UniProtKB/TrEMBL annotation:
Compositional bias of kind Basic residues: 429-438
Protein name according to UniProt: DEAD-box ATP-dependent RNA helicase CshA
GO MF: ATP binding; hydrolase activity; nucleic acid binding; RNA helicase activity
Compositionally biased region (Polar residues): 1-13
Motif Q motif location, chain numbering: 21-49
DEAD-box RNA helicase Q domain: residues covered: 21-49
Pfam families xref list: DEAD, Helicase_C
Any single Gene Ontology cellular-component annotation: cytosol
EC class: hydrolase
Entry-linked InterPro entries: DEAD/DEAH_box_helicase_dom (IPR011545), DEAD/DEAH_RhlB (IPR044742), DEAD_box_RNA_helicase (IPR050079), Helicase_ATP-bd (IPR014001), Helicase_C-like (IPR001650), P-loop_NTPase (IPR027417), RNA-helicase_DEAD-box_CS (IPR000629), RNA_helicase_DEAD_Q_motif (IPR014014)
UniProt KW keywords: ATP-binding, Helicase, Hydrolase, Nucleotide-binding
Family in the record: Belongs to the DEAD box helicase family.
Amino acid sequence: MSQVSDLTPTTNPSSSSHSSAQFSELGVSEVMLASLEKAQYHQPSPVQAGVIPLALEGKDVLGQARTGTGKTASFGIPILERLERQGRSAPPQALVLVPTRELAVQVRDEIDKLSHGSKVRTLALYGGKPIRQQVVKLEKGAEIVVGTPGRVLDHMSRGTLVLEGLKMVVLDEADRMLDIGFRPDIEKILRRCPKTRQTLLLSATVAPAVERLAQRYMRDPEVLDFSDKTKTVDTIDQYYFTIEQSKKYDLLVKLLEREQPEQAIVFCRTKRGTDRIQRKLSKSFPGADCIHGDMHQRARDKVMKRFRAGEIKLLVATDVVGRGIDVSGISHIVNYDIPQASDDYVHRVGRTGRMGREGVAYTFVTPEEGQELTRIEMLINRLLKRDEIEGFAVIEPVAGPSGPAGPSGAADAPKEEEKPKPAPLPGSRRGRRHRRAL
């Protein structure tokens, strides 16, 4: 592939007239328009309006866009439009590489939905499933293959996946694939692909590693930036609670009772904690289930299928679903454990507020975790609002206008001018405010 010396975005389509475009103006066929109507795609998102026309022209495209902006359709529609009719056992014409098993299933299902009425076969290849079943399906033929790099490379080494017929290659969530160590596998795959292929790369960030990948394996790509100025979207209301560790579960129950979420994800830091919280919640919330990396793939697939169908209203999860899961009905995110990495906060919160919908996120912060909260606020350039539920505020006993805030409520509290000023909690917002100002 020819080197790319300049990856400066040619335009920022999110601020252009693309936002008012119609699918009929993007150059798609009448068959596709009928499929889009069936799938209830009424108007293209900025990502779709920017990527689809260029992809239909056969150009390489590097698009910077976060999850939840309609990325899958932005490459799924051009793939379906550019497929050629071939024999049943012909090699695949399009390959989509994704970082996780869950995202592979999601992309396959979305392309299936967009190909309504046609006989396009889309196959998902990922680990955790018997490879023999996938081999049988590959032998029968598939026009589109969606897979994780490790399993795709496995099939290539066995000779069960042939790439010589590829017309299009998509790297979805490229930054995430590089973060989790897939760079060698991706490069091995790309070197085996036809040099005349079209390449689309979608990434939430264009870090130096992503830029090097584009320079090496793409041909004069059109670079489009759909990212927001800040790390999270304005449609997500973000709050925090200061709470003692021992009271977090009781606060969670009260919060869910108050909010009555349409669908919610509760993020925990550990697999063991996820199991424990789910077991306790299921006694009060029958629609609760959990997902984490120690579960068998079949169980994970079953949970995600039920969650997408709306059968599960409350999902307790580790960061295995922190990226790449696009379920439009999620109204609430609860960070039961504050994430260890600030970027993980962005990806967790991004599960709600999808495609411009409103969403709300709550983060539980113990008094010792004030610095973690500050780092998150600096990353997103926004202060989280403090929320409180009666009985769960972490406050030193201090007298108020009608008496002390302690449990006794005694009337002999110090007078207003005699009230001692409480020392700020370790890591509290009062103690941190001067650091943020600096």
